[in-house]
Amino acid sequence: MIAVFDSGIGGLSVWRELYKLMPEQDYLYLSDSANCPYGTKPVDFIISRAETITDFFISKGAEVIVIACNTATAAAVEHLRAKYSIPFVGMEPAIKPAAIASKSGVVGVLATANTFKGSLYNTTLEKFASNIKVIERVGEGLVECVESGKFEGDEVETLLHRYIDDMKSECADAIVLGCTHYPFLESAISRIAGEGVTIFNPAPAVAMQTKRVIESIETRKESNSKYSFYSTGDTKIMRSILLQIDPKISDNSIQTVEL
Ligand code: DGL
Hints:
By secondary structure, the chain is an alpha/beta fold. It has 2 domains: 2-91 and 204-256, Rossmann fold (3-Layer(aba) Sandwich), CATH 3.40.50; 95-201, Rossmann fold (3-Layer(aba) Sandwich), CATH 3.40.50. It has helices at residues 12-21, 43-59, 70-83, 95-101, 113-117, 119-128, 142-147, 154-169, 186-193, 203-217, 236-245, and strands at residues 2-6, 27-31, 64-67, 88-89, 106-111, 133-138, 174-178, 198-200, 227-231, 254-256. The strands form 2 sheets. Strands 4-3-1-2-9-10 form a 6-stranded parallel beta sheet, sandwiched between helices. Strands 6-5-7-8 form a 4-stranded parallel beta sheet, with helices on both faces. β9, α11 and β10 form a beta-alpha-beta unit. α2 (43-59) crosses α3. It starts with a strand and ends with a strand. The mean pLDDT is 94. It binds D-glutamic acid. D-glutamic acid (DGL) is lined by residues 6-8, 10, 36-39, 69-71, 112, 115, 143, 179-181. D-glutamic acid binds at residues 6-8, 10, 36-39, 69-71, 112, 115, 143, 179-181.
């Protein structure tokens, strides 16, 4: 059973890739909507939420945990790996493929404040982006738009122009989505970034990595896969996203939980 969590529904952009790649697996998803966003919260608070969620997942029989949140990965993955024996797969900022693909040598990165502060992001930058220019923008307000189901419209456009226009004027030809909520804004991001700008979403690579982890531990196969989706807050937008991913997902698999 693969358990997936995020501060909110953003991690469904990762779950979507996991489900595409491994539809036969059992899944648990937890949206910590009552505490969203994590992007500006103290690191200790995020670590404590990650522990509570991990304990919940282990009590439900999880075998692998995917931290479908760049912010929680940055804050807590090392701590979690040291404390628990269950394997964790975290988000990797897609700096390397963006740096390789960029012809202009300028890459834009959109992420939360905590992700930019974390050592994971900064080490990745040192390793793969020493020869390119990186324009970092905190996507303030974007997580809230996604959480309220606004993937398009004036508010989204105004915010995106605020972050992407600078990247464009500096000739960035690659934009890294450094927060799992942002793939839900990908159409608007692509439109505003314009032609010739490639958007990099690490979710497919994270799904591949999870598959490798699963293959290394898997001892049994069940014939019917099962899904459960939990939220510590409202489930309305979660429901509508899940129905877009697969209309067969039943309402009964979505519930609220107090953690
Ligand atoms: N989806 C998250 C991420 O990937 C967290 C956003 C937030 O809660 O601020 O960073």
